[in-house]
Structure formats: structure tokens, C-alpha cells
Amino acid sequence: MKASDLFVKCLEAEGVHYIFGIPGEENLDLLNSIKHSSIQLIVTRHEQAAGFMAATYGRLTGKAGVCLATLGPGATNLITAAAYGQLGAMPMFMITGQKPIKTSKQGHFQIVDMVDMMHPISKYTKQIASAENIPTRIREAFRLAQEERPGVAHIELPEDIAGELSDAEIIEKSVVRRPLAESKAIELAVAMIEQAKRPLLLLGAGANRKFSSRMLHQFVDKLGIPFFSTQMGKGVIDERHPLFLGNAALSAGDFVHRAISHTDLIINVGHDVVEKPPFFMQQGGFKVIHVNYQSAAVDPVYYPQLEVIGDIANSVYQLSEAITPQPHWNFSYFREIRQALVNHCRHGIDDERFPVYPQRLVHDIRAVMPDDGIIALDNGMYKIWFARNYPAYQPNTVLLDNALASMGAGLPSAIAARIVYPEREILAICGDGGFMMNSQEMETAVRLGLDLIVLVLCDRGYGMIKWKQTHMGFDDFGLDFNNPDFVAYAQSYGAHGHRLTAAAELAPLIESCRAEKGVHLIEIPIDYSDNDRILNYEIKQISKFL
Q1: Distance CA 251, CA 235 (A)
Q2: For the chain, which end, N or C, has fewer CB atoms within 10 Å of the first or last residue's CB respectively?
Q3: Are strands 306-309 and 374-377 parallel, antiparallel or unpaired?
């Protein structure tokens, strides 16, 4: 069998349905093999966007998303997406091409050592030097990419190796069960939780990965322990739940941080120190139980006293079965915190100002999105407002990145979500800065015939950095830009373009775009003038009296 055919058959054996990317001449054997396979090639307009799509596919399915690039500049364009997948624990398999390694006659033209470059930002990176190694390399790459902690695997397939012949056989996936937590660790955790006076439950990204939602719902409902989440843990438990205390969207000072300072024990389920810290440990402060697939990496702000290592859903089940609600548990202060959060999140939801007030934007989008609808956020100021004010009802319905926190991922992530879930409502939410970093993928969405709504929030500047600049007392400098006519820009790709002219138009406009089908872009001017006042001062002033 030709090596490129063997390579593709190994991908099929791994359950690969899509490859996102841009082929080059070094990939032509592989491209021809893909043509004669069951795998759909989705050609993108930039390799970085292909990587974001593959990572999001992995995040939503638990199976490694696959992306493809040629050598040199095509391969280096995948670097940001690789870091995105690796830091965000999204299973991902990257294929890059290379010049012939046995008889190359082009010197070092376009040659970059991608295997070496990928070492710091992947779990596995290898060059295929012989067709005989293809089955073992691919099986190992997928195994590592998908097992906890998930991440990125990379294989470089040189042009001459792709054309070789081989009689190597495909290696089928083995049956693997995740290990369960040791009984002594469960017993110690039960004792700590029962002895605590004010325990809190924290939900991180790891709880979102393996669909532990049902066990965690049962844990909270049985024991009545209040909970909060990290940004990438949103939706693990329905955030309409009366015990939900909020999302750790800010570094400090929000209502949820008042609850954290009042607790004596945090049951930390699925949190990863790669994500922005939801709390800071101090000697002599509250204790922490680390419940995760892997042991904790000790960090200056994180050093748990007990670790329960194993399958998260099973660990939570064992804890739930063994713990008895205690009469000395006191959650009255946490109930005050929740009510204060709910009241504060109502501020501004009916504000008619234009450009649109962020609280009104978030409220109206939540009102029109179904329970299982997915919003894919780019990285910008609005991410904090959505993390804090947008209640997620189901796991992985708020796609945001709080690990690499890269701009440019919003639109590609929404495209991948639409491919994975063609029956669900998908909304891309981007700032004008982040949108323009991968806006060319509007053509990809149109070409694929997707139904997709893209909101572009316009403040003509890098709003997140402006917020920080204001808070630090610096002058407004160096962060402004101009935009194209986004309506005309969308139409130039064959999409539908809309421009909001009043706050009250947003919800009806989203509904009409949904009914019309196709790709729709809505340009939304947004008013960030109160960011510093509300997020840096008002919240802290209100919460300090609780």
C-alpha cells in the first residue's frame, strides 16, 4: 500500500471524519489519498483558523480534531493554534508536510525544524522517517492527544515518505478504562468535607471534558453545597441552580471572591492551573481538596492539602454516596452572596443607550438562545461580561478560552461547533479586533453552506487592554484603529450583513437571521465606557459590605 493511503486508513481507524487545513505541494500524495477516503477535507483560508477548528472539534467531542498544513510558513502558522489546544487541554492532531528527506535537491528552502519547534507546545511530535512506522506513530499520537490531560500531537510526513510502499498493518484502538480513585483518598476527602463548616464546590474545565455533569448535579442536589466555576467550567451544572454563586471572571473583588474568603474548604473539581486562578491560596487559610484525573502541579497560588486522583465522575459519585449532610454546615452567607450577584447582574439589562450597553447585550443574547445553544467567544472585553453575566445551562455551551486566551479563535470555533452540532443554534461573538484576525473564514462558512450568525462588537479599539490602561492610570494611547464597512464586507463573501442602530433591535434581528438561514454578520456598536467604574470599583464597593 502507498504510505499516504496507509496514513489515511490509520486516520479512518481512529474515527476521523474531518481534516481542516490548507494543503501544499508536499502534501499532494496525502491529498489524493484523502480524496479516495471517507474523510471530508475542509479547506480553510488560514492554517491558524484550521487549528482553532480542530481544537474546538476536540473540545466538543473528546476525539482529536485533525488539521493539515504544508511545510515552512504553512506549518508555522499552526503554532498559535497548537498552543491554544495544548494549554486549553483540547485533543488535537496536527499534520505537516516536509521536503524529501532522502534525496532533497532544494537545500534549506522553506525548511523549518517543526518537530523541534513543537516540543514545548505538544504532548507528542515526530517525523515519519519510514512508511513502516506510520501505524504505530499515528496510534500513539492519538492515544496521547486524547488521554488525560488532553492536548496536541504532531506528525510531520515528508514528501518522499508519503510516496513509499509499505505492507505495515493498521493498529486498532485498544480498550482503555480510566483508573478510579483509591478508597483511602475518598475516605479522607469525606472526613474533610463533613468536618468543614462552610465547604464550597469549584468546577473547572476538567469537569467539562468528560461529561461529569450528571454526577455533579446529584452531588449538589443531595448535599446542598454551593458551587462556583472557572470560565472554562461554565455550564457543568445549570447556572440557574439556586446554589450557583457565580463565575470567577475577575481576578478579585467580585461577589464570588467574598464567598471564597468566607469558606474553610474548597472541593476543587477539574481545575487546571493553566487557567487563570479562580482563587489564591494562603498559608493558614482555607483548605483545598483536588479532585481530578491527574495530581496537582504545585504552584505558588495552588497547593492542595488532599488529592483524589482518578475518573472525575466516579470520584464525585463515590463522594456523594459516602457523605452525609452535616447539621453544622452553614451556608447562610453564601445565600446572601448569590442574591447580591443576581441583583447586580440585573443592572443595565433594560438600558436603551446606544451604542449597546454590555449588560443589555448579554441579557438579550441569553434570552434568544435555547438551552443547548452554543456561543463561541473570541477574546476581548466582552468575554468578562459573558463569563460573569451569561448563565450557561448545559456543558460546553459557552466556548471561551481562558488558558492561552488567543484572539482570532471565535469565528473558527463557531464554524467547528456548527459542523459538530448541525441541529443546534450557534452564535459567534467577536470584537472588531479579534474578528479581523481570522475574518477570512467567513468565506469558508459560506462555501460550506453553514447556518451561522456572527456578532461583531465594535468599539474601534483593543477594549480589554484599554480597560487595563484606564485602571492603571495611563493615558488613552496606542490602542485605536478603524474598521471596514462590516455589512459590505460580509456581503462581499456572499453572507448577509446587518448593522444595529438601536439596542431594542438586537433580539428581533437575531431571530430573523435565524429564520432566514445562511451566514449572517451583525455589526454592533458597543459602549464600554463603564467598564472601569463597574468592574474595578462598583462591585468591590458593594461586595465589601456583605
Answers
A1: 20
A2: C
A3: unpaired
Domain of residue 276 covers 183-331
pLDDT digits over 380-425, tens only? 999 999 999 999 999 999 999 999 999 999 999 999 999 999 999 9
Query: Over 70: is that where the pLDDT of 40 sits?
Result: yes
Cβ-defined contacts of 397-401 (< 8 Å, 24+): 397/234, 397/235, 397/371, 397/372, 397/373, 398/234, 398/235, 398/374, 399/56, 399/59, 399/374, 399/375, 400/231, 400/232, 400/234, 401/84, 401/88, 401/232, 401/377
With a CB cutoff of 8 Å and minimum separation 6, the contacts of 337 are 245, 246, 255, 256, 258, 259, 262, 546
Report how far apart the first and last C-alpha atoms of the chain are (Å, whole number): 71
Last residue of a domain, one of 290, 308, 331: 331
* Among 107, 128, 162, residue at a domain's last position: 162
Residue 542 covered by a domain = no
Q: Of 203, 294, 285, 192, whose CA–CA distance to 243 is shortest?
A: 203
Distance from C-alpha of 366 to C-alpha of 344, rounded to nearest angstrom: 16
Write down the pTM of the prediction.
0.95
The pLDDT-based confidence of 70 (bands split at 50, 70, 90) is very high
Angle at 331 between CA 344 and CA 318, to 5 degrees: 115
Residues contacting 171, CB < 8 A, separation 6+: 10, 13, 135, 136, 138, 139
Report pLDDT for 137. 98
Count: domains in the chain: 3
